[in-house]
Amino acid sequence: MIVDFDVISEESRIWIYQSNRTFSITEINEIEFKIKDFLISWTAHGSDLQASFIIKYSRFIVISLNESFNLATGCSIDSSVRFIQDLEEEYDVSLLDKMNVSYRHGEFIAYKPLIEFKKMIKNRSISKKTIVFNNLINSKSEFLNNWEVPIEESWHNRFF
After folding, report:
1. Nearest-angstrom CA–CA distance, 60 and 21
2. What residue ranges in the chain does DSSP mark as E strands?
3. Which SS3 state, helix, strand or coil, does residue 53 take?
4. What is the pLDDT of residues 89-127, one digit of tens each?
5. Is the Cα torsion angle 33, 29, 8, 156 positive or negative in sign?
6. Whole-number CA gyration radius for the chain
7. What is the Cβ-side half-sphere exposure of residue 20, based on CA atoms within 13 angstroms?
8. If residue 89 lies in a helix (H) or strand (E), which one and from where to where?
9. CB 146 within 8 Å of CB 134
10. How many Cβ atoms are within 10 Å of 160's Cβ, its own excluded?
């Protein structure tokens, strides 16, 4: 069951999938349709799940699940991962690789492999004030308050 992202509980569990490239408007429309179709039928042992999603900055797919409504199970989480893998294949993007970093470069969103990001820090191309996207957060509340933060306030700070 889909609910609007604005109304789903702030305690809802969240998964963030960052793309290695920006999606086109056409791709976003197609992906939104596919996500809605998936979430409508997403269940845990036959019980409906209350979920929502947004696509931020034409690059991040954010799926939330209200676990106070029904808990996700291993099978339901597996099915969501398979769905994301299907999107990766269909759109020739990387969505599941957590060894990459997205950050703001002026008004643009940059995407770098972690090893390259570390080199940029070492070369002082990036400062502690650079805004990064913390895709390891677990709840909608964290997403709203701690997703886009300066490096000095994120787990990325350990690279300084």
Report:
1. 10
2. 13-18, 43-44, 47-48, 51-56, 60-65, 100-105, 108-113, 131-133, 148-150
3. strand
4. 999 999 998 889 999 988 899 999 999 999 999 999 999
5. positive
6. 16
7. 16
8. helix 74-91
9. yes
10. 12
Is residue 64 classed as helix, strand or coil in its secondary structure? Answer: strand
CB atoms within 10 A of CB 82: 11
Helix, strand, coil share of the chain (percent; to 5)? 35, 25, 35
49 Cβ contact partners less than 8 Å away, ≥ 6 residues apart: 1, 39, 42, 43, 65, 66, 69, 70, 72, 76
Where along the chain do its domains lie? Answer: 13-91, 100-159
pLDDT band (50, 70, 90) for residue 71: low
- What letter would DSSP give residue 136? T
Is 20 exposed, middle or buried, given 0-12, 13-18 or 19+ CB atoms closer than 10 A?
A: middle
Amino acid at 95: L
